[in-house]
Amino acid sequence: MAIKTTQEAGILYYANSTKRDFLSVYLANGKVVFSFDCGEGPIVIINPTYVSDGSWHKIDAYRKSMVGTLTVDDSSFSGTNGTAKDINRILAPQYVGGILQQSIKYVPLSSQVSFVGCIKDFSITPNKKTPVTLADQSPQRVGVSACRGPSEQGVFIHDGYVILDQNVNVGKNFVAAFQMKPRVTEGVLLSVRTGDKFLVVEMTEGDVYVRASNSQEPFETSTNLLGKILCDGQWHSVKVEKIRHVIDLTVDGVVTSVKLKNAKSIRTDDPLYIGGIPDTEPGDHINSAKAFVGCLRDITINGDLIAMDGKESSGKISLNFCPLD
Fold first, then answer.
1. 93 near 140, Cβ under 8 Å?
2. Which of 38, 67, 209, 284 has the most CB atoms in a 10 Å sphere around its CB?
3. Which portions of the chain are predicted below pLDDT 50?
4. Is 111 strand, coil or helix?
């Protein structure tokens, strides 16, 4: 295979058996790692070539009996362990670019994430047979987009939405923070609503607005006094902090506030969306007239960084890929 990425960790290939045997190729600290187990303990081969530089790099992971060789570009390293000569039968499915199951044998936790970048010329040659390509296998694709040039990590949204959590209670205290790079001047950034109780963060005419209500007249605060242009191709930080009846909106370090009358708690129990809401959801709490298009990253809710792998989404969404062009 050949890869192009700026991400320093992620799964490139993974397969295992019902026993302890497995075979994996992944990134760790910007270097390619080839690891497998023939039944007598794992072999780990690390090639010191740094590949997370945004350039194309060719990778060849080769195993013959208990000897493995990992070649990155023109640099090769080998390793061996035990006397076993074969890996037990590998079970379908085999994974390229990420993995759905939670438990991955002998892959560091920091590398158990989906690959962000481009992969081409991928093939497997089992038992000295004819190489098998991805196209030969009719693979199932999950969150995969065509490579369209330079990219960076984040969530790319184009007329759709992602569900961060199925049941969210804003309550008395709630904090959401993220970075955004919008390509339009309108659209929903974050929304949760149960009946007439809601909290929504949106862009309207180039400004960021926060609107909230607890069965009463909605109150809002916005960036419209900052004189900033947010749709400028740059990343901007956004933080919404609700502490009892006060909501602070911080955009690029500048804070605006609003007080909610008699609304210390906003009791919600429905999904928390980013990038938009489903057409089946009521939208009278939203002012923006168009769908959001752009990138979001580093999304935290109440201090917890949200992992985007496996999140339910709808529309033109890439959970781990933001095109730069």
1. yes
2. 38
3. none
4. helix
